Amino acid sequence: MRGRIDRLTWAARTARQLPERLKQLERDVQENRRLHQRVAELTDVVAEVLVPAADRDDARIREVLAKYGETSF
């Protein structure tokens, strides 16, 4: 009998914690999306820098880096 009461107590406690856990998971997902977006932006910057670098377009490289400097956090 004690084991059943312990399981029910655990289940009730877990059920009460679910809304806050869900909120935390949603925040984590949003942070993950933000970080993925940032990685995509950095990948774009690297591609924009490397392609002109192959052509030795120094003005274009400076332009891309300046744009990145304005938008980076």
Structure overview:
Helices cover 93% and strands 0% of the residues. Helix 1 packs antiparallel against helix 2. With 73 residues, the protein is mainly alpha-helical. The protein has helices at 2-55, 58-71.
Biggest sheet features:
none
Mean pLDDT: 83
Order of helices and strands: HH
Could you tell me the radius of gyration in angstroms?
25 Å
Question: Main attributes?
Answer:
73 residues, mainly alpha, 93% helix
What can be said about this structure in brief?
The chain is built from two helices and no strands. It is mainly α.
Topology:
Blueprint: H1 2-55, H2 58-71
